[in-house]
Amino acid sequence: MCTAEDYPVRAAARSRTLAGLDAELIRCRACPRLVEWREETARAKRPAYRDWEYWGRPVPGFGPSDASLAITGLAPAAHGGNRTGRMFTGDRAGDLLYATLYELGLASRPTVTGPGDGLELYGVRVTSPVHCPPPANRPTPGERDTCRPWLAREFELLRPTVRSVVVLGGFGWQAALAALERAGRQVPKPRPVFGHGVRTTLAPADGAGDPLTVFGCYHVSQRNVFTGRLTAAMFREVLAEAARTAGLPVAGSAPE
């Protein structure tokens, strides 16, 4: 029997499908600070959501198991994913993400609230390097590293189909590259530097299969959007290019 501390390594390794990985992940209690925060937030609630029954557990990735495009950010929001149980749902960042995916023809609806709203993603999976909401939206490096086996295994299970990854923010960039390396991708040394619109191509370390293109994008945080650091047009451009690289049809784009 594994302890809470080594649970992510053992449970991720024994997962053979994304559904199985998600089922293992939501039982994780490896990071005491994050467990305490997510559960306290779920008990206290925000007044606007006092009638909600908060999820209050680690938030799994969302999207089909044969996705060709993956999007990864930082961590769930305390009153967003921690409330709804679905990545990027219920907060301002998710509003822009899913509206843009809908505009590109990669989501079934532009606005989302939580499970039961009918949202489907087409060829896209949304995930995160840290699966519990951190206080002040700041996970520690140790928490990031403890959570890494989940993302690494998710990338391994997506390997047959995934062709591009969009990484939101500098913290997510470093976390994603480390997870991809653990998942069997060749990451250059020194590692590519994060920036909006940068891209790097990672070959499979074993030489088998297709390369993976990783795109950097400013995070869709409320602060970045309100200050104009990231505009809807800038975000759409990165997502559209990543989708085309993944071989997905993009609404409004001329066929090649």
Automatic annotation (TrEMBL):
Keyword Repeat carried by entry: no
Record's keyword terms, sorted: 4Fe-4S, DNA damage, DNA repair, Hydrolase, Iron, Iron-sulfur, Metal-binding
Uracil-DNA glycosylase-like domain boundaries: 60-239
Keyword DNA repair listed: yes
SMART domains recorded: UDG, UreE_C
SUPFAM superfamilies documented for this protein: Uracil-DNA glycosylase-like (SSF52141)
InterPro entries: UDG_Type-4/5 (IPR051536), UdgB-like (IPR044147), Uracil-DNA_glycosylase-like (IPR005122), Uracil-DNA_glycosylase-like_sf (IPR036895)
Family: Belongs to the uracil-DNA glycosylase (UDG) superfamily. Type 5 (UDGb) family.
Name of protein: Type-5 uracil-DNA glycosylase
